[in-house]
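Same chain as my last thread, 514 residues:
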Amino acid sequence: MRISGPPLPPLPVGGLTEAIEAIGYRRQPWLTVVRGREEQAFSGAELHALAARWQAAIEGAGLEPGERAVVLFPNDERWVAAFLGLLRAGGVAVPLAFPASLSDPAEAMRRLQPLLTAADPRLVLTTPELAPFVALPSVTQPASSPATGAAPVRGEDPAFIQFTSGSLGQPRGAVISHRAALSCTFSMGLAMALGPVDRGISWLPLYHDMGLVGALLCPLFFGFPLDLMRPGDFLLHPSRFLSRAAHIGATVAAAPDFGWKACARRARLPPGDLSRWRVALNGAEPVHRSTIEEFQAAFGPHGFRESAMRPSYGLAENTLGVALYEPRDPAPDLQHEGRLLPSVGSPLPGVEVEVDPQGEIRVRSASLMSGYFRDPEASAAALDDGWLRTGDLGQIHQGQLYISGRIKDLVIHNGVKFHPYDIERVAAEAAGSPPNGAVALARPGPEAEELVVVVEVSGRNSEGVDRRVRGALVDQLGLRPDQVLTVAPGALPRTTSGKVRRPAARALFGGQHA
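reply #2:
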């Protein structure tokens, strides 16, 4: 079955650099960087001038158009200006995760080395604290004088390489062209009716596709201001994110499901008036009805409109967005293997979606990646005659898309197929753990595969965890795990975006028998 979004109108600009030039005419604040309780505002003209100085520094370091440079900064104006300056220089950006702690910078860089090796960059744009530990030429400061003009680029030229998170295996770099980045941004903006009157706020890491495209490129392209927080500040104080949204009258924000759930469960202070908020994208991981209901129950009394929460579906290989729920076209949840699937809506403008006979979702659009960087075998497996094989499972019902799981993620227990995140959601809630504080693993047994559920619990919450987790899984899923393991908070291996790395977790815990 196949569904299509409306046609995508012609792109109003030919490359990202044209959108960058446009912000140089904005004299009012365009980027406000929020560091804890402090903030610093930059007009479009100031940010453009800073990007031009970064461009001069990058060109002065010898980077030629088409060469790659890593962008390695915290979530602030340095990341934004260096990224924009790199694009103006005609370079190809490779965004990577800035270390959460600089207590051991040598170890932090050692962990990034596999990605640096895979990306094979010419330069690393980073902070003076990290530069001594980078075994590559680095640039840590913008030049004193700006570059005079942007390098010419073609639509098919690569703009950035988005490395996938590695939650299911070895990370791969999706090569995103200027045309693909513009097509995706334009398509998403049309679906959300974005414009200069909007006000964005984001805590998402800029190295991640949702943060880069959804939180940065959309305000850049559609000309509305953005308040940028750091991920760590949100994770420690979700109340500050909501209070800031209310204070500035934010209209647009995006987050994975766990972020909205964290707000609903951990934000303790009254946020203020949220009535201007009209788009709250929920994507990047499975969307749960319970999250939507909890968020609305918590913040509906503060003006948050039920129609603002918008489940969505996207992936880095399509630059970002594929489908978006439209509250004016309501759709019921779909019953699937004993659980409710919220609709993630219909395809964005210019996007086609089909579900093949095996249940795999396939996508065709102008936003598709050019391929995986230096991996022709993986590229050929993913791209088939203009279609992207997503590896995600889903259903189409009454013109709406529903996501049910991943092909490589199925757990088969006693002959019944389960999606691990369903098991993990139930186990984490029963154990009182964070939403990403559990992992379900299959291990070889003497007669059949056995199911192991590993949950992170602190010492004060550990009593009775085994009983609570087993009872919840039986009650909600009719599933009896072979073993429940409890580990300390932080023991599960995760990607830089917080997702559990299943292969690494399986290597750590899959062989432990009671």
